[in-house]
Amino acid sequence: MYMALRKAKIKAKYEGETFVLLHGFHFDNEVYERQANGKGDYKNRGSKRILTY
């Protein structure tokens, strides 16, 4: 929609405000999950920084 308005040279305020529903956090637990590559190896999928949009 924004591209169509821009192409028609119509000035519009597109997403002028942003809202944070959940702040990012660091997930410091260890989580071991099986890989889906057929080998069946377990890999630590934890200890990550979780970013939200």
Kindly describe this structure:
The protein is of the alpha+beta class. It has one domain. The protein is built from one helix and four strands, in the order H-E-E-E-E. The strands form two sheets. A two-stranded antiparallel ribbon has the order 1-4. A hairpin with a 7-residue loop joins strand 2 and strand 3. It is elongated. The chain starts with a helix and ends with a strand.
Order of helices and strands: HEEEE
> How would you classify the helix and strand content by structural class?
alpha+beta
Q: Could you say which overall geometry the principal axes of the C-alpha atoms support?
A: elongated
Biggest β-sheet description: 2 strands, antiparallel
How many helical stretches?
1
Sum up the structure in keywords.
single chain; two-stranded antiparallel sheet; alpha+beta; two-stranded antiparallel ribbon; 53 residues
Q: What is the topological layout?
A:
Layout: H1 2-7, E1 25-27, E2 32-34, E3 42-44, E4 48-50
Antiparallel strand pairs: 1-4, 2-3
Compact description:
The protein has a two-stranded antiparallel sheet.
